[in-house]
């Protein structure tokens, strides 16, 4: 198997280099940027050579997003950075700086690999027909299923309450206006909160944990609960935040599945469709904003035409607007820290704590850069993990931090493989989707989102375990 992966990796690497050389005329002065992007793609193939590589390793999650950076580099080189919304430098300077930035990212990733593979234990999962985390059985399964129903009911009450606050007459418009959720007009008096929406995730996780084998009835019920949950969370207007729940459940299912090989083959077909759905929802959100503005101005909007217009501008919207790791903004970060502003020495790495301690003085560098360099921009311009490390420790310190981050990541992975349990895999799946996967695009403060994805489940499960010792559940063996 290793020899096969090695052969294919060499073929892919040579193909990328050959493609970059033979397409030089397409890129003009940005040829070096395209070549450096191809080099980055080659570096990302290195983990394919590792022994018994598992798709749910942190290195795989990081590399998926870094691959989007490489594709963005090729796209921006091909278009001459004309669609790059956050490019502040002149084109000749971009042609010089962008390849160097991409090469730095490649070396940073190699330093991450060094720390990662120095401490990586070869994962051994055992039999393919046994779940890594067996589901509950008997009365315990019935109890956790009842708890799932209770959690879902409370979450649904929270959703119904929010609809009553804003659109009691036309509930459908509450969901179709998700692109402008912050600008909704509150009709009834009350306190708006989505805290109860966390119980949707708890309900889904508990329900899946309550049975060992899927049946048609269970699949239909789970699908209904999932669709309602996604619609509720999507109403807040956060696209990735919503669909990361779906990716989280897909990751978690692997640990519960009794036929992991078959499930993996199925997941490789479904996950790409999820990403298509994410892009579709992003375009729908943009159209929702345009529809809102048109209604405010008293104009009509051809929704279908507006939607197809977004698809025709796919490259500019995805790669040019910074919806993937933002190459032009990375160059701005290199200019800012160490000259305009001193290095942070770890301040931004603990910003995630502000989500749990209201009086914690957090440093969000994405907003600071936006205020300084992009005064007309709404929101922050996140650096990505590579340039956040530069902002904290400088260019050389960034390499050392990459090595350290690789060590920490693989130690967590080793723990999951060695002592996989219900709460451990729930927490790990949340970190995999909302931390490692998205980190090359954002900053360390995103860790709070990962924690919020598994913390409610952990808290409710802890209450269940305490109650299970002191309370006799009024349920039958089989529900």
Automatic annotation (TrEMBL):
Domain of life: Bacteria
Ranges in a coiled coil: none
Positions of transmembrane segments: 7-24, 30-49, 61-78, 98-119, 146-166, 190-209, 216-233, 239-256, 263-284, 390-413, 420-438, 450-467
Keyword set, alphabetical order: Membrane, Transmembrane, Transmembrane helix
Name of this chain's protein: Oligosaccharide repeat unit polymerase
Taxonomic source organism: Marinobacter maroccanus
């Amino acid at each position: 198997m290793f020899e096969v992966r090695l052969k294919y990796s060499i073929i892919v690497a040579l193909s990328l280099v050959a493609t970059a050389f033979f397409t030089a005329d397409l890129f003009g002065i940005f040829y070096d940027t395209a070549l450096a992007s191809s080099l980055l793609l080659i570096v990302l193939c290195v983990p394919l050579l590792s022994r018994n590589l598992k798709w749910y390793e942190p290195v795989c999650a990081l590399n998926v997003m870094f691959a989007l950076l490489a594709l963005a580099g090729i796209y921006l080189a091909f278009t001459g950075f004309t669609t790059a919304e956050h490019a502040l430098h002149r084109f000749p300077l971009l042609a010089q700086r962008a390849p160097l930035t991409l090469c730095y990212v490649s070396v940073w990733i190699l330093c991450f690999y060094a720390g990662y593979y120095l401490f990586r234990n070869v994962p051994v999962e055992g039999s393919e027909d046994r779940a890594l985390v067996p589901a509950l059985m008997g009365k315990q399964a019935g109890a956790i299923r009842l708890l799932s129903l209770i959690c879902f009911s409370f979450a649904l009450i929270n959703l119904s309450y929010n609809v009553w606050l804003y659109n009691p007459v036309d509930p459908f418009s509450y969901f179709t206006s998700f692109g402008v959720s912050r600008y909704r007009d509150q009709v009834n008096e009350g306190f708006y909160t989505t805290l109860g929406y966390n119980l949707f995730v708890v309900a889904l996780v508990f329900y899946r944990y309550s049975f060992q084998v899927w049946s048609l009835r269970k699949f239909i019920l789970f699908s209904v609960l999932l669709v309602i949950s996604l619609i509720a969370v999507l109403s807040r207007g956060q696209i990735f935040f919503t669909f990361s729940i779906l990716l989280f459940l897909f990751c978690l299912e692997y640990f519960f599945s009794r036929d992991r090989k078959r499930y993996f083959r199925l997941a490789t077909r479904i996950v790409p469709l999820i990403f298509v759905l994410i892009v579709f929802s992003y375009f729908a959100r943009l159209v929702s904003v345009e529809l809102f503005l048109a209604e405010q101005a008293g104009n009509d909007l051809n929704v279908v035409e507006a939607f197809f217009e977004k698809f025709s501008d796919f490259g500019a919207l995805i790669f040019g607007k910074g919806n993937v790791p933002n190459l032009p903004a990375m160059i701005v970060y290199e200019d800012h820290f160490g000259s305009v502003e001193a290095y942070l020495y770890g301040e931004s790495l603990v910003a995630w704590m502000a989500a749990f301690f209201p009086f914690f003085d957090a440093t969000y560098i994405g907003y600071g850069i936006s205020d300084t360099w992009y005064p007309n921009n709404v929101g922050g311009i996140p650096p990505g993990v590579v340039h956040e490390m530069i902002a904290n420790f400088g260019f050389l310190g960034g390499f050392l931090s990459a090595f350290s981050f690789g060590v920490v990541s693989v130690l967590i992975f080793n723990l999951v493989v060695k002592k996989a349990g219900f709460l451990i895999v729930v927490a790990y799946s949340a970190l995999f989707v909302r931390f490692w996967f998205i980190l090359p695009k954002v900053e360390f403060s995103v860790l709070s989102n990962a924690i919020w994805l598994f913390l409610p489940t952990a808290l409710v499960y802890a209450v269940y375990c305490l109650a299970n010792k002191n309370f006799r559940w009024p349920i039958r063996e089989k529900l």
